[in-house]
Amino acid sequence: MQEPSRHYVGLAARARVSRGFTLLELLVVMVIIGLLAGLVAPRYFEQVGKSNVKIARAQIVSLGQALDQYRLDVGVYPTTEEGLEALVVKPQNATRWGGPYLQKAVPVDPWDRPYQYRSPGDHGDYDLYSLGKDGRGDGSGENVTISSW
């Protein structure tokens, strides 16, 4: 039998030594991933917040179009008491109701709260708005009031 060459023995020894990662290597990788997440995550969530505001604006425009169609059919906007549900379910006093004016149920805002509706409104025939993420509407970014006016 032949003896294994030195080159072969060196490769086998190195293979045994480098079978796994050391704890230090794993910790370095974890720190790098943590730093990257710390840099990327805030920017990602900022974009999500901007998209929620855009969704709310688009839904308010869509609800406004449905309200306008309701007014064309019935002659007046739904009262505050009738609310946006009048776009889906015929109110008792709406004789010329031609709805439903929405394909599905009345949507909630992107933060799972109902849209605020008031008719007559302070800013026009009706006020339709969302108070944003915090529910107060007095901030900026996602916490701003998104309205029909």
TrEMBL record:
Residues 44-149 form the Type II secretion system protein GspG C-terminal domain. It holds the Pfam family T2SSG. PROSITE patterns: PROKAR_NTER_METHYL. The keyword Transmembrane helix applies. Its main location: membrane. Keywords: Cell inner membrane, Cell membrane, Membrane, Methylation, Transmembrane, Transmembrane helix. InterPro entries: Bac_GSPG_pilin, N_methyl_site, Pilin-like, T2SS_protein-GspG_C, Type2_sec_GspG. It comes from the Bacteria. One of its GO terms (cellular component) is plasma membrane. Belongs to the GSP G family. This is Type II secretion system core protein G. The gene is gspG.
